[in-house]
Amino acid sequence: MNEVIETLLNHRSVRDFTDEKLTDKQIQTIVESAQRASTSSFIQAYSIIGVTDEAKKKRLAEIAGNQSYVVENGHFFVFCADLHRHEVIGELQETEVSSTLETDEKLLVAVIDAALASQNAAVAAESMGLGICYIGGIRNDLFAVKEVLVLPERVIPLFGMAVGVPASVEYQKPRLPFQHVYHENMYEANPERMKQSLSDYDALIHDYYMVRGSNPRKDTWTGQMGRMLSKSTRLDVKDFLKAQGYLKQ
Length: 249
Known about the structure:
Elements: H1 3-9, H2 24-35, E1 46-51, H3 54-63, E2 75-82, H4 84-92, H5 98-101, H6 104-127, E3 131-135, H7 142-149, E4 155-164, H8 178-181, H9 191-211, H10 221-229, H11 237-243
Helix pairs in contact: 2-6, 3-7
């Protein structure tokens, strides 16, 4: 055990921040830590937008489902898959790159690069005593986010991250059991074992929801997932990707 592992194992989403703003040095450290994440073939296919304008933050909060902590935090970051600069590189090098940038593979590369960078940023922030909360709700209306952030073609806003000094901290939400996530040599797909493991996890999650500090409720993980997956959402994502110059082949 060391401080890095302790920071990782202590993670929980924070949704209640003080009004203390991050310093320029903290912001730079978080972004530079993000930049040290692994990147496929050195492509570095992401950008990070810090949102400080209160009107823009309020609009993003509305898009994300009126989540107050999108506005009330120390700093709000938006992580984007970004191949726009690579299109500029094509112009600089006088090389045709559009057909490559439009492939499914390059979309995956950009999304993975951004995700890796964001997790480095999260760990860096938490190691500084700050709290973080990922905000996937900005994908509720990608076209509106594009307008708010004035995004050029080939830039996709994937998720936000609220960062700040925690005003309060919730109980840590239990994750799936180790044996349910880790497979050795082959995928363990025995349905009865999986159902038993899920039932055990449901009991753990039920207890968590009943005793947590805010909004206690009777619920299970499979019940929650079943309700969520029973209806399709954000059906405009494919249209947005095409509009931004992806999936054209």
